[in-house]
Amino acid sequence: MIKQLPIFLSGAGKRDVRTQFAALCYRVRKSKVQVLLITSRGTKRWIVPKGWPIDGLTPAACAEQEAWEEAGVQGRTDGRCLGIFSFSKDADDLGALPCLAMVYAVEVKTLAAEYPEVGQRRRKWMSRKKAARLVSEPELARILRDFDPPPLSGQT
C-alpha cells in the first residue's frame, strides 16, 4: 500500500478548478473484470462514484467513502491514482464549475443492500468496454478501457 497523507482543507476561490476523488469499483468473476457504474442523481447519466475531499482523509480513502455512500461498496484500494478526468459540475449559485477527478481502483468485497444513497441511484456491473461506451467523459472512458486491476486479492 502506498502511503498517502490526509487532506486538510483550506478555502478556495469560487471559480477555482475543484478536485474530486473517484472510485473505479471492480470485481473479477471467472477471470473477467467487471466494473460498477452508478447513475447520477440529476441527469441519470452513468458515472463512477466521486465526491469532494473530506477533511483528514487521504484521496484514496475519500474515493472509498464515496463508493460506500453512492453505491454501497465495501472494498479496498491500493492507494494509487489510475488517472484524472475533467468535467463540469453544476452549482446552483455559481453555474458550471470546472472539476478534475482523481480515480482510484476500489476492489469490491461486498455490495450492501442499504447505504446512504440507496433509492437515489441505480448501480450496474458491466464490462470495462461497455462502461467506457456509457460514460460521457472521454478521459474516464479511456481509464475504464485501459484498466488492469492491481493484484490485491490474488484473484485471476
If you had to describe this structure to a student in words, what would you say it looks like?
Helices cover 19% and strands 39% of the residues. It has helices at 59-71, 128-134, 138-146; strands at residues 18-29, 32-39, 46-47, 50-51, 73-76, 81-91, 95-111, 123-127. Strands 1, 2, 3, 4, 5, 6, 7 and 8 form an 8-stranded mixed β-sheet that branches. The longest helix has 13 residues, at 59-71. The radius of gyration is 15 Å and the shape is globular. The relative contact order is 0.25. The model has no long low-confidence stretch (mean pLDDT 89). InterPro entries: DDP-like_NUDIX, NUDIX_hydrolase-like_dom_sf, NUDIX_hydrolase_dom.
What's the short story on this structure?
The protein is α+β, with helices and mostly antiparallel strands and about 160 residues long. Helix content is about 20%, strand content about 40%. α2 packs antiparallel against α3 (about 140-145).
